[in-house]
Amino acid sequence: MPVLVVTGTGTEVGKTVVTAAVAAAARAAGRTVAVLKPAQTGVAPGEPGDVAEVRRLAGDTVTGEELARFPEPLAPGTAAARAGLSPVRPPEIAEAAARLAESHDLVLVEGAGGLLVRLDEEGATLADAARLLDAPVLVVAQAGLGTLNTTALTAEALRARGLRCRGVVIGSWPAAPDLAMRCNLADLPEAAGAPLLGAAPEGAGTLPPESFRRAAPAWLAPELSGTWDAEGFAAAHR
Questions:
Q1: Residues within the annotated binding site for substrate?
Q2: Strands of 33-41's sheet in order across
Q3: What is the pLDDT of residue 129?
Q4: Binding-site annotation, residues
Q5: Active-site residue flag, 37
Q6: What is the reported pLDDT for 123?
Q7: Which of 17, 149, 165, 220 sits a CA distance of 20 to 30 A from 113?
Q8: What is the value of pTM for the model shown?
Q9: Which residues bind substrate (predicted)?
Q10: 92-142, pLDDT tens digit by residue?
Q11: pLDDT < 50 regions, the chain
């Protein structure tokens, strides 16, 4: 099944921008793409959410679907309970992703926050949906100090559940990286037990959509339909 689950090592790590970049690179390679957001939090009815942002950046030829929306910027399970709304559960996510996979070459399932953020009162998580789908998980991580620990913890949680980490993408790579960031280029694959598959430049989400689409393949490795070279990138930042 052509499904890739996208999670982050935490909030505000660049997950939506990376999802859009993967979608844009896949579209540039001639693949049909859908993005599924199981739970959108912190956005009022009628306001654009993460799906709209992915489609704005990657293009409206990307199919977008959102399963649930909760107004407060909280974990989905908490936000649903406080709003008096039904939570979204892993079987719903798996069913929607499988349905989209029937008519698309690639389905990107973008989670909320990190891998183990609770979706409902029973403690279900995005990892449970990935397990139902038997789908690999792409981890979006920060560039700087502290990222090795959160990346290693995310990868360990994946392994403990029998899930495969497809790789790691740095969600925001600055123009002037510090020493820790440069060292992390070599250390992140060790922490994750999976390859480093790209780095989106800082501010990528502010680019005009046409520029974003043209540039996106250069931020991602061939495994994600791009041209980015991990060894060359690391060598350039020694």
A1: 41
A2: 63-70, 33-41, 106-114, 3-8, 137-141, 165-173, 196-201
A3: 97
A4: 12-17, 41, 50, 110-113, 171-172, 201-203
A5: yes
A6: 94
A7: 220
A8: 0.95
A9: 41
A10: 999 999 999 999 999 999 999 899 999 999 999 999 999 999 999 999 999
A11: none
The residue from 22, 34, 37, 117 that is catalytic is 37
Strands 3-8 and 137-141, by their bridges, are parallel
pLDDT for the residue 45:
85
**Which stretches of the chain are assigned E, i.e. beta strand?**
3-8, 33-41, 63-70, 106-114, 137-141, 165-173, 196-201
Asked if residues 136 and 162 have their Cβ atoms less than 8 Å apart, the reply is no
Residue 78: both structure tokens together: 């908490």
Token reading at 50: 């993460």
Radius of gyration of the chain (CA): 17
Helix, strand, coil share of the chain (percent; to 5): 45, 20, 35
Find the helix packing angle between 126-133 and 90-101, rounded to 10°.
Answer: 40
Strand partners, 68: 39
Secondary structure (3-state) at 32? coil
pLDDT at residue 91, rounded to an integer: 97
